[in-house]
Amino acid sequence: MLPLYLTSTFYNNFDKKTKRAFLKYFLKVIKSNGVGRQKRKRLRREIRKSIKKKSKRSLANECTVGNITQVTISDDTFPFDYDDITQFNCCLSATTVKNNLDSITGKVDEEEYLKIVLSKLKEAYAGNTAIPENQVQLLGPASRVATTVDINRWNVTKIDTLSALMDSANGQWDLSLARAIITKYLSTEKNKLGSAELNVIGGVNLCSLDTDVLKSISHESLKDASALTVSNCTTEKKKELFTIAIQAFVENTRTTTISDSNYQLLQPYIGGANSEFVRTLAASNINMDMATFISLDENVVMGLNVNEVKNLLGTNLPDLKSYESQTLVQSWIRNQFQSELDKLGLGLVGGKADPPATTKSPAATSKSPAATSKSPTSTTTKAPAGNHGNHIRADAGFSFLVLLALLFTSQHVL
């Protein structure tokens, strides 16, 4: 299967006739071996690139290579002979696209070619308000080059149509376009986000929907659906999906421990768990792996202490060291005291310094005998509180007597 990985530089060494013969043969080989569309697409792209380097784009506005018909499309190498996109556009009619859409989208891979196919299809149904649902189901990779305006003209009312459009084999969706398609489907009366819809939409595209739409998912639907990958959801959306998942997989929401089987069912949605639930997991011996740990809400992780993380990871605790440079783990480490991290025995560094010990000196905490014993000579006798007035009057009387004595003495001398 080496040719699948060769670049246009290699194919530049061969003429167009040789490349065509090789492509026709090798495409049959890889199809019989179940090689996926994306790898076949890469092979076609590299060979076409080697041809385009040697050919100039046609300036003619008429078909000179040959009109594209059902027979032309049936050739395994189609659209190899239309390496000039101008010729592809001129030689492909709207009627041919309308009548052979499935065959065309099964072989055409390059975006610029697919845009022409989609344009021709719109031209074929120019007189209609919408493109029929049976045609929408055949768009394949051409759907990925559509715009919101294009999608508004599609009929998307059946689960089969939604399934065909969401097929990941045709490439990943731009999330704004995925949202437009799902919203169009849900606008049909009685259509909802049931388990079948959740399975065909997938977690990545589900995250494109508004939180209010996600709230409409019943816990029965989530329970019956396959596990969804919702890591690209916003924190708010993860919390909403986790709330639904709790109702779906945990019978007693007030339980103080979570069984291993329930944890496995909840694991895809654990990124929306709150601190209380994560602490419940820490007490449940669930041995959380590091990939799940770093998917937790950052605020929740930052609120966990060293012992709680130890209990949460369980037998996977040694893996914490290998994730030491991961952003969330680094932030958590910086939030812990280094002495606590050292107790894990993993060699984690970067924690906070321990606070300084607060010890009281003996001089400050004990009183000296001199300070606590009173000298007999320093003892004073306080007058009763009620005799302050008498004490003042006695002092005044004494002074008065002294004054009289001096006055009497002075007169006696004279």
* Main sheet characteristics: none
How many DSSP-defined strands?
A: 0
The backbone outline, from C-alpha atoms, is: elongated
Structural class of the secondary elements?
mainly alpha
Taken in chain order, the helices and strands follow as: HHHHHHHHHHHHHHHHHHHHHHHHHH
* Rounded radius of gyration (Å): 42 Å
Low-confidence stretches: 364-394, 400-414
How much helix is in the residues? 40-55%
Mean pLDDT: 86
How far is it from the N-terminal to the C-terminal residue, by CA? 147 Å
What is the strand content?
under 5%
Please report the number of helical segments. 26
Description:
The chain has 414 residues and is mostly helical. Among the domains are: 1-55, no CATH class; 273-352, no CATH class. Helix content is 54%, strand content 0%. It has 26 helices and no strands. The protein has helices at 8-11, 16-32, 37-52, 70-74, 85-91, 94-105, 111-124, 133-136, 148-151, 159-166, 175-186, 195-206, 211-214, 219-224, 235-249, 260-266, 275-282, 290-293, 298-302, 306-313, 319-322, 327-334, 338-342, 362-365, 369-372, 388-413. Helix 6 (94-105) packs across helix 7, helix 10 (159-166) runs antiparallel to helix 11 and helix 11 (175-186) packs antiparallel against helix 12. The radius of gyration is 42 Å and the shape is elongated. The N and C termini lie far apart (147 Å).
